[in-house]
Each structure stands twice: as C-alpha cells, then as structure tokens.
Task: inverse folding
C-alpha cells in the first residue's frame, strides 16, 4: 500500500519531540473516550483503541491517568468531534479530525490554515470518499510469512500484510481492530510500532518539489492547531 507507516510516525515524532503538544492531544482524546463510556478500557472499546495508540507514542502514564481520573471525576468539560475536508496544492486531499469546545474558533482556524497555505476547505464528503477507514498494526521481530500464518491460525481476515524496513505492517477492517490485536497478544506480541485506526488514501499523489514544500507547510499549520487531533492526506511523503 506504500504508506511507509514507520517513516510517517518517525517524522511526526521528530516534529513533536521537544514539545508537549502530542501529550496534550492524547490527554484530550483519552478524556473524551473515557467520558463517553466507562473509564475502563476493558469495557470501553473506544478508550482501549486510544490507549493502544498512546502506548506506541510513549505517552507518559501520568498523562493517561490524569485524563481518566478527570473523566471519572465528573468534569463538565465537553468537546465536539468534528471532521473537516479540504484540498491542497495540485489537487491533494486532506481530512482533519478535531476535538473542540468552540466550534466557531476551530472552523475559522482550520479554514485559515488551508487558505493561507495554498489550499481551501471543501464541503463534507468532498474528500472522504477517496479514503478507506482502516486498522493498521506494525510489529517487529516477525516475517510476513509468520504473521500471515499467525493470523490464519487465529482465523482472522485482513486486507493486506506488507514488510516495511524492520516491521511488518498489517491492514485490516476497522471493526477487526481488537480481533487482530488479540490474535497478536495471544502469541505474546504485546508491543506494536503502529496501532491505529486511520483514514487511508485509496491512491497516493506525488507532488513536484515546490508543491510538496507548500503542502508540507500547510499540513504543519493544520497540525499546529490546538483543536486538531488527526490529519490524513493522499500525498506520498518523501
């Protein structure tokens, strides 16, 4: 599928290495997931997914515990989950998922981040149809053949299995996230380089150098927004 998940993650981690921004985003997401259901990941699947993601980004336990305790404490703080879709240079496509306590502010900020960097916001559905909601796992220490055999023995169907550098990347239907996760854990695989529910572009776009620089500047501006949780796009990263 060509997504180079390890490279994407390394780039994001490098960008966030000297800031607490990624922890703040996870803290908000964990709080919302815990608030919407039970604050126990064993009975709250949405929270379980977020915590698995947080683990792959080495989010400190204190951040996680604080967010869950905040939800348990009955905080009245509330957030809306909103998705924005838009276009960047050369017809590139972008999906922006947000958690916000001020819808007007977030819409204005996202629109400005697009507009000031050569892009524009689209209407709902203008981009999302070109992406597939997908569960993605990355594991180390096993070959493609070993992973395939493991999943076949567990009677788990997946979309694709791809070797990438030192990892094997597994793509599955989103409703199979926990099934795949448990299949790995049943044979002792508990650490993942990637454990995400994502929006995967059906086709990737390669941009010329100048457009690539403009696109990355736009994505940086969007990701820097306080209310933005996830950004998905169809551009092949170089």
Result:
């Amino acid at each position: 599928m060509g997504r180079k998940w390890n490279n994407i993650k390394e780039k994001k981690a490098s960008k966030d290495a000297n800031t607490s921004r990624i922890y703040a985003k996870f803290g908000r997401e964990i709080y919302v997931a815990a608030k919407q259901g039970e604050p126990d990941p064993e009975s709250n699947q949405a929270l379980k997914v977020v915590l698995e993601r947080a683990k792959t980004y080495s989010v400190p336990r204190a951040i996680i515990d604080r967010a869950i305790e905040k939800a348990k404490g009955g905080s009245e703080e509330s957030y809306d989950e909103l998705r924005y879709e838009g276009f960047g240079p050369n017809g590139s496509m972008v999906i922006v998922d947000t958690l916000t306590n001020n819808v007007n502010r977030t819409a204005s900020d996202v629109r400005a981040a697009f507009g000031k960097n050569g892009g524009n916001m689209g209407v709902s559905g203008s981009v999302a149809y070109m992406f597939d909601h997908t569960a993605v796992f990355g594991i180390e220490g096993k070959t493609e053949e070993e992973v395939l055999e493991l999943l076949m023995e567990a009677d788990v169907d997946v979309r694709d299995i791809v070797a990438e550098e030192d990892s094997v990347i597994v793509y599955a239907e989103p409703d199979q996230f926990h099934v795949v996760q448990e299949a790995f854990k049943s044979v002792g695989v508990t650490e993942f380089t990637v454990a995400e529910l994502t929006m995967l572009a059906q086709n990737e776009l390669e941009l010329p150098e100048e457009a690539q620089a403009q696109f990355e500047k736009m994505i940086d501006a969007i990701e820097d927004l306080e209310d933005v949780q996830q950004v998905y796009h169809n551009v092949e990263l170089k």
